[in-house]
């Protein structure tokens, strides 16, 4: 019997009993709505792909300046190509 | 009141109301098991729904001579959980930034310590402890759900108990 394993573990039992689980209301009735779950998935927060770069002040500045510099360079390239 | 097994047989004969009653009686223990295993509310809710969807599809596979409805449902749920966790690991390795951050729910009260101690257990031992302690299942049922030999259930439970006692020892003496 597995129950015998716990018989003399009163402190452990006391602690394990604290881990109660509240049941969410969403589960009160069986609803199978895949669309809602897909929307939840899309709306769930995702990891920031630039997290490591933006965590430093240099990285944060670079993330703001690099796109701006690219835009300026592209604009200049277009201006020169039109002028020529 | 009808037992789960009677309800299942009635459902197999085509009574859909029996399915609703089965859901009513078994969604709580299944959710508790999944939540204690993962500490993730949304994941556990999804798996409960998926489990009962699978039960509808596989209702004729259930044989009352082979075990209880509870262990049959737990078996489906545990398999779905492992598939989902494995799939998530794969996605995480290919596209680390596309995987949603799962809100791991840890309480702030005194159950935090035990919640963390259980979360720290190796997956193989965690399932055994949860099913044996919180759901009071027989060794044979646990073996069937986790798809392990019956002898392994007891040895894993021993290891898990030892680990839990070590993890929770400090916390207990700090209180006392």
TrEMBL record, chain A:
Keyword line: Membrane, Transmembrane, Transmembrane helix
Its domain of life reads Bacteria
Keyword Transmembrane helix (UniProt): yes
Transmembrane ranges, per UniProt, are 65-83
Its protein name is Uncharacterized protein
The lineage is: Bacteria, Bacillati, Bacillota, Bacilli, Bacillales
TrEMBL record, chain B:
- The residue ranges of the RNA polymerase sigma factor 70 region 4 type domain are 112-164
Q: Which CDD domains match?
A: Sigma70_r4
* Name of the protein this chain belongs to: RNA polymerase sigma factor
Per the record, the similarity remark reads: Belongs to the sigma-70 factor family. ECF subfamily.
Using the record's annotation, list all stretches that form the RNA polymerase sigma-70 region domain: 22-89
Keywords, sorted A to Z: DNA-binding, Sigma factor, Transcription, Transcription regulation
Q: Which InterPro entries match?
A: RNA_pol_sigma-70-like (IPR039425), RNA_pol_sigma-70_dom (IPR014284), RNA_pol_sigma70_r2 (IPR007627), RNA_pol_sigma70_r4_t2 (IPR013249), RNA_pol_sigma_r2 (IPR013325), RNA_pol_sigma_r3/r4-like (IPR013324), WH-like_DNA-bd_sf (IPR036388)
Question: Which Pfam families does the record associate with it?
Answer: Sigma70_r2, Sigma70_r4_2
**Keyword flag Oxidoreductase:** no
- Is-annotated flag, keyword DNA-binding? yes
């Amino acid at each position: 019997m597995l129950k015998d394993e716990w018989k003399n573990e009163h402190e452990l039992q006391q602690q394990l009993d604290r881990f109660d689980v509240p049941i969410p209301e969403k589960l009160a009735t069986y609803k199978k709505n895949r669309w809602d779950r897909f929307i939840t998935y899309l709306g769930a927060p995702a990891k920031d792909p630039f997290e490591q770069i933006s965590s430093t002040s240099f990285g944060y500045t670079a993330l703001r300046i690099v796109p701006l510099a690219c835009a300026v360079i592209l604009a200049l390239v277009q201006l020169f190509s039109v002028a020529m | 009141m009808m037992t789960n097994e009677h309800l299942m047989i009635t459902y197999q004969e085509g009574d859909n109301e029996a399915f609703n009653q089965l859901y009513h009686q078994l969604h709580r223990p299944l959710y508790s098991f999944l939540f204690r295993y993962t500490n993730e509310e949304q994941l556990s809710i999804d798996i409960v729904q998926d489990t009962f969807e699978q039960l509808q599809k596989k209702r004729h596979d259930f044989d009352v001579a082979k075990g209880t409805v509870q262990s049959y449902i737990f078996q489906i749920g545990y398999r779905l959980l492992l598939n989902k966790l494995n799939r998530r690991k794969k996605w995480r390795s290919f596209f680390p930034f596309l995987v949603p951050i799962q809100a791991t729910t840890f309480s702030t009260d005194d159950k935090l310590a035990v919640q963390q101690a259980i979360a720290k257990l190796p997956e193989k031992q965690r399932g055994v402890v949860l099913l044996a302690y919180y759901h009071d299942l027989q060794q044979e049922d646990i073996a069937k759900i986790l798809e392990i030999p019956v002898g392994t259930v007891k040895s894993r439970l021993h290891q898990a108990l030892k680990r839990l006692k070590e993890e929770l020892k400090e916390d207990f003496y700090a209180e006392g």
